[in-house]
Amino acid sequence: MDIQNKKLTIQEVAKATGLTPHTLRYYERIGLIHPINREENTRRCYTMDDVGWIEFLLKLRATGMSIKDMQRYAELQRQGDETLPERVEMLKSLRDKVESHIEEMNEHLKLIHYKIDYYSKVVEERELVKV
Amino acid sequence: MDIQNKKLTIQEVAKATGLTPHTLRYYERIGLIHPINREENTRRCYTMDDVGWIEFLLKLRATGMSIKDMQRYAELQRQGDETLPERVEMLKSLRDKVESHIEEMNEHLKLIHYKIDYYSKVVEERELVKV
DNA sequence: GCTTGACTTAGAGCACACTCTAAGATGTAA
DNA sequence: TTACATCTTAGAGTGTGCTCTAAGTCAAGC
Known about the structure:
The structure is a homodimer. Helix content of chain A is about 70%, strand content about 0%.
């Protein structure tokens, strides 16, 4: 069988994505994932495309996008190419948010470095006094 | 009155820090802030030092430190200089977490940039076909 | 003196994002 | 065939971090 057409069980997708079967069904229920095909029986049969989409979702999630916004994005995706401009706008807004978040983290990092250095020196001096 | 010794009401601290009075009381209740002095009556009287501590807390929070860890840090801070080594360890662990978080965000940012470019080109081509 | 508004507390309620339970159906191995 | 694991659903429960409510006290302005 073509590896691209390989069908996967919910367990296999869970293992591949790091999500639990519970969470995969939850994401489908709330519309983050389109209704997965059921082949032969009532059980879900995922494709590699589905896994790709879930991995993209996880990246959106990791950047701090809310479920609400991911639902909107998923809905647009299902509506087809007509919605590309709106999706680009969403991605641009996300890009700006992530960029300013990174800037903020870099600022906080400076303070953390400063505190580590300063406190380390104080500890050193206290050690010297003891000896 | 010396500006450093200026006493502040909960409203003033709320305005200065961006937290609400509710949240300020909550943070005190759970030990993120030491019990604030009550002068003349039962009402809280904050000092500039208190505001400085709260601002530091907000930076810890912004880096994703949990309330539980902030409680631990606050407790150590109140115990004095003996706990400096443990606080340095906490800060080092936070530094590592923030650094790898920033790295991850930069990776995600690349994908977002790529998608924006790719989709923008697709949209452009669709526009050309229409005209 | 009275109203208005800010303060106090303990504790309830909320939004988010899962995470799990219960009860039943179905597939797989011995 | 029997046992057991895994699947299904709807819906309840959980952890985190607030956020608000209720009921009462207090102080300042009209």
